[in-house]
Amino acid sequence: MSRRDDAPDALLRLILAGGAANPRRRLLERHGSPEAAFAAGAGGWRAAGMDLEQIRAFAAPAPAPLAAGRDWLSASPHHHLLGWHSPDYPPLLRGSPNPPLALFVDGDPALLWRPSVALVGSRSPSAGGRDNAAAFAGALTRTGLVVVSGMAAGIDAAAHESALAQPGGTTLAVLGTGPDLAYPRRHASLRDRIAAAGAVVSEHPPGVGPHPSHFPRRNRIIAGLSLATVVIEAAERSGALITARQAADSGRDVFAVPGSIHNPLARGCHRLIRDGAGLVESAADVIDGLAPQLTGLVRTLREHLHEPEQTPPEQPSRTDAGEHADYQKLWNALGHDPTGMDRLSERTGLTTAALSSMLLAMELDGRVSVEHGRYCRKG
To answer: Which of 9, 48, 92, 368 is the least buried, fewest Cβ under 10 Å from its Cβ?
Structure first.
């Protein structure tokens, strides 16, 4: 089983307290865990900046949402809750503006550490726009990148479907509802397939329905998890442009696909290009632009985990094993049959965060392949 809170109640209470996120993040940073934060009492909560309404809600949350969160977490080993305090919290998102206090994850939480690209655009695209979304998503997935989108109608759905259609394809959906709900409702089957092959993510507790304010906030998570955002087709007033702006605010690359000057759904992309977004005509253009960020991501993960720069050779020597004991453990745990993250964690005793970083480095070095979140030696 992937690492999760031993006692999630305190973190659920903190999430359900609502209100400003900064005081609640500060509380976790000061006390180190949700349990210690809860034990700090009203005085500690007030010192962290929580207002009276938050303090009351933290002390005595509404019973129904708390029970719903508990029930969802216990319903499946694939249901996870990653809090701000957790070493498994995705580092790219942690470094973005206004990251969420916690993430509910249905699926593989290790996917949130893998290099990913957001594909976004119109909910009512042209046929050509839909084809472009499928082509970009398919090509990016085949290179090992994770396609991130918001599971909305149109471009989002086309991107997810194409990613899932690739051999070993995975994809990541960020929702504006709780992790258990699909919006639009007709995407319930798509939600289930994404959770089974990849991951569905939300900052909202189970049972929370759609609200107009949720979707711009959802877009910041899409941008924050991704190395780059590609806008396939978007009108001048489009939620996709919000995602693109949030990606730029996070210091990530923004790319846009140009279209006909007579297509109103191309105007948002043309505006982005005029404002400095990279013009891309194929997934290869995106991949070429991402090379420095991919190298930087691996370096960041290694620095975060205080790991060496190189991975071991295909058959590590005794010297390599002595210098890189964790890599040796992982290499020994890997075989030629695909193995899931949970089993690798059991075999090595390493955390999901550590394994994700090491596997990413080994995959980029051509030593490891991944299919549906399961890893094996390559070749």
So the answer is: 9
